[in-house]
Structures are given as structure tokens and as C-alpha cells.
Design a protein that fits this description.
Blueprint (H helix, E strand, L loop, with lengths): L9 H61 L1 H16 L7 H22 L1 H8 L3 H26 L3 H24 L5 H10 L8 H5 L11 H20 L4 H8 L5 H14 L1 H5 L1 H14 L3 H41 L8 H26 L3 H21 L4 H25 L12
Helix pairs in contact: 1-5, 1-6, 1-7, 1-9, 1-10, 1-11, 1-13, 2-3, 2-5, 2-9, 2-13, 3-4, 3-5, 3-9, 5-6, 5-7, 6-7, 9-16, 11-14, 11-15, 13-15, 14-15, 14-17, 15-16, 15-17, 16-17
Length: 435
């Protein structure tokens, strides 16, 4: 349940920092557990399926998790609404349900399109039509999942939020174990287990419902729909270069050695660790920005944190790239066994650099979401996605070269754009009494 807000005096800011730290710690523990379970699932699927089938499954996984990633603004928007309501001592109105409805319809349309368009169906699912059907139902469930998460974290119900994060990954891991024990492991059964995790929200309907007041109207359909669609489009572009990147590679740079592509996608899993480690901060970014934006001092502190974070991301990116170049191939072979030999250091160096900058980008765009600057979020991720897509389409060379360079170039260009947006003093953020 929500707790009373703390005024942003010097003492209030210290209390806010402590509260944020405690919340980040709780969420961080749950996310580490979820990350471990998630890696168990993806690593096991990769090993059981082998390089060639892994190329198909990685594409499906990219679409399903890409839809989940595209719905992350739904979590951020509802966490914003929930945090604002909590600050005012109220509950979220029917605008939360309107946002959920828009998200559900949008994800259903996109998932249905991957089934209806022959070229998408063939390249994304490798001829397995059932994977598209699983994606459709899993995507709709994801909309409910992210809406529930947003209500919980924005309303400071950290305990239930943390449990939901773990429950999602646990459902997948348990079902995968049952599938393996039953001896029916394959692309379709692993896909069903993957999608089942998106229904974990059903276990948390009651605590989320307590944060909603259906008698309060809130924003109407037009502003909610406009903002959510802008944010979903932005996140769809985001997902295309994060969780959905294998699908984007198969779509824009098809062909190449199937075994090498399967090894590349396995290496991509290893390089994505930086994106997962900062998930606790991303989950808390929007509520924290809402609270810090209540005063001029809070805004100045926020801008300093953003500037330091951008510089830190560049330093970590360089260090991560060097480490990835030196030991990345060995780690890939260690984790995925001898059938995944052939990964090269420069692959992993480029992908780690891109992953670190994508992490910084996600945090920066969360600031823009908190400021309700959806148009700038869209511009930022459009720059990233278009830059990456142009490399995949136009760069001379094979699929591997284009995939690695695209993932390094797009986030680099996007970071420059995002930093310019978030470091500029916003004109639409006003002080909120009692924040």
C-alpha cells in the first residue's frame, strides 16, 4: 500500500534517498532471482535446441519479450499515475484502465500482424505458425502484467511488486523443468513455457485492485490513448534493439551461416548482463523523478545525477567492451558447451558496448516519461532504431558484421540525443505541494 509522501526539504531529500535505496535493494534482490531463473530458462533452451533451432527460438523469444519490452511504458505510465495519486493521498482512477485497454489492443494488433503477413511469419517464426499464436496470447497477458507492476511500484507496494517479478520468471523455469523431465522438449513446448510467465499477474490482482478507485474518472480516452500510443511506439523501437534484436536481424539481414547466427544470438545473451543489473533503478526511476521534480533543488540534483550517469555509462561501456573482447568467447563456450564454438571477441565487445549504452538510454528516457515528454522519448528511440536498421540494411559485409556494428552504432547515436533532452531544463514540470 502507499505511504505518505515526504516533503522535499533537505531532510526530505535524504529520507527520499534512503527510501529509494531500500526499495531498490528489495527490488534488486527479486530481480537478481528473476534474472537467474531467466538465464536458466534461456541457457537450457539454447543447449537443448542447438545452434540452428536456437536461431528460430531466439527470434520467437525476441518477439515475445520485445512485445513485453514495448509494453514497459505501460508500467512506467501507471507507476507515474500511481505515484502522483499516492502523493495526493488518493488512488488511481479509471484512466489506469483506459491505459491498459490501449496497451492490450496495440499489442494484439502487432502480434496478429506477425501472423497475417507471410514474410513476417516466415522470417520471424521459421515456418512455425504456432509460435505466432503463442506470441499473441502471451503479448496480451503481458499488457496486464506490466499494468499490475506499474500500479504496485508507483503505489510503493514494493513487496508485491518484487514477488510478481520473481513469480513471472519462476513460472517459466518450473514449466521448462517439467517439459524436460517429460521428455517433450522442443521449440513449441519451450515457447508455451516462455509465454506462461506473462500470466503471473493473476496472482496479484487483489493488491493491485486496492490501488485503483473506479469511482474516480481521471484523464479521458483521448489524452490517455495519445500518450500511451506514443510511448508504446517508442518502446517498440526500444525493444527492436534490445529483446527483439534477433528478430530484427532475421528480418533486415536474413541469410548467413545458420550455425554462426545461432552462436551469435547465444553470445548476445551473455552481453546483455549490464541491461539486467540496473533493472532495479529503471523500475524506480519514474516515481523518483516525480518526487524530485517538485522543487528547483530537486531538479538540479536530478540533472547532476543524469550527467554523472551518462559519463559513467561511457566508462563502463569501454571497460565492458575490453573484458568482453578478452574473455567473451571463453564464457560463451563455457555456458553453452562445445556446440557453440566460434564466437569471436570483437562480437562480444561491440554487443557489450551497445548493452551498456542501452542501459543508460533506458534510464534517461524514464526521466522523460516522468516529465510526460512522450514525444522526446519517441524521437530518442526512433534515432536508435533507425540508425541500427540502416546499418543492418546498408553496411557491406555478412550478417554477423552488420548485426554487431548495428548494435554498437545505434545506442551511441541515441545516447547523444537522450542526454541533450534530459539535461535541458524542462518547461512542463511544476512544483507539486507536499511532494
Amino acid at each position: 500500500m502507499s505511504t505518505p509522501s515526504t516533503p522535499v526539504t533537505d531532510e526530505g531529500q535524504r529520507e527520499l534517498a534512503k527510501e529509494t535505496g531500500r526499495s531498490a535493494g528489495k527490488i534488486g534482490i527479486s530481480l537478481l532471482v528473476a534474472i537467474a531463473l531467466g538465464y536458466i530458462f534461456t541457457f537450457a533452451a539454447t543447449i537443448f535446441l542447438g545452434p540452428v533451432n536456437n536461431a528460430v527460438f531466439a527470434s520467437f523469444w525476441g518477439i515475445l519479450m520485445g512485445l513485453g519490452g514495448a509494453l514497459s511504458p505501460l508500467e512506467q505510465e501507471l507507476s507515474r499515475q500511481s505515484a502522483v495519486a499516492s502523493v495526493e493521498g488518493a488512488r488511481v482512477g479509471r484512466s489506469a484502465l483506459r491505459a491498459l485497454a490501449v496497451g492490450m489492443v496495440a499489442v494484439a494488433v502487432v502480434a496478429a500482424a506477425t501472423l497475417a503477413v507471410p514474410v513476417l511469419k516466415d522470417r520471424l517464426y521459421g515456418g512455425h505458425v504456432e509460435l505466432g499464436v503463442i506470441t499473441l496470447f502471451g503479448g496480451i497477458a503481458f499488457a496486464c502484467q506490466f499494468a499490475t507492476r506499474g500500479l504496485l511500484v508507483g503505489g510503493n507496494s514494493i513487496k508485491h511488486y518484487s514477488r510478481l517479478v520473481v513469480a513471472e520468471a519462476a513460472v517459466r523455469a518450473v514449466l521448462m523443468g517439467l517439459v524436460v523431465l517429460a521428455g517433450i522438449s522442443g521449440i513449441t513446448t519451450f515457447a508455451i513455457a516462455a509465454a506462461a510467465g506473462s500470466f503471473a499477474w493473476l496472482l496479484f490482482v487483489r493488491p493491485a485492485r486496492r490501488l485503483v478507485d473506479l469511482e474516480t474518472d481521471g484523464e479521458g480516452w483521448r489524452p490517455v490513448t495519445s500518450r500511451i500510443l506514443l510511448l508504446l511506439l517508442s518502446a517498440g523501437l526500444t525493444a527492436s534493439v534490445i529483446t527483439g534484436y534477433p528478430a530484427l536481424v532475421n528480418l533486415l539481414a536474413p541469410g548467413g551461416d545458420a550455425v554462426k547466427v545461432g552462436v551469435l544470438f547465444a553470445a548476445l545473451q551473455v552481453s546483455r548482463v549490464p541491461l539486467l543489473l540496473l533493472s532495479p533503478l529503471q523500475a524506480l526511476a519514474v516515481p523518483t523523478v516525480v518526487r524530485l521534480s517538485g522543487t528547483t533543488d530537486g531538479m538540479q540534483r536530478l540533472r547532476r545525477l543524469i550527467a554523472l550517469g551518462a559519463l559513467g555509462a561511457i566508462g563502463v561501456g569501454v571497460l565492458g567492451a575490453v573484458i568482453g573482447w578478452l574473455i567473451g568467447p571463453w564464457v560463451v563456450q563455457l555456458l553453452f558447451r562445445s556446440q557453440f564454438q566460434g564466437a569471436q571477441g570483437w562480437w562480444i565487445a561491440g554487443m557489450v558496448w551497445g548493452a551498456v549504452l542501452l542501459t543508460a538510454l533506458q534510464l534517461m528516457t524514464a526521466v522523460l516519461v516522468a516529465r510526460t515528454q512522450a514525444n522526446k522519448v519517441l524521437v530518442t528511440w526512433a534515432v536508435v532504431a533507425v540508425s541500427t536498421a540502416l546499418v543492418l540494411l546498408l553496411l557491406p559485409g555478412d550478417t554477423i558484421l552488420r548485426a554487431v556494428v548495428g548494435l554498437a552504432v545505434g545506442p551511441t547515436v541515441g545516447l547523444v540525443v537522450a542526454a541533450a533532452f534530459v539535461l535541458r531544463r524542462p518547461g512542463n514540470v511544476q512544483g507539486t505541494p507536499g511532494v
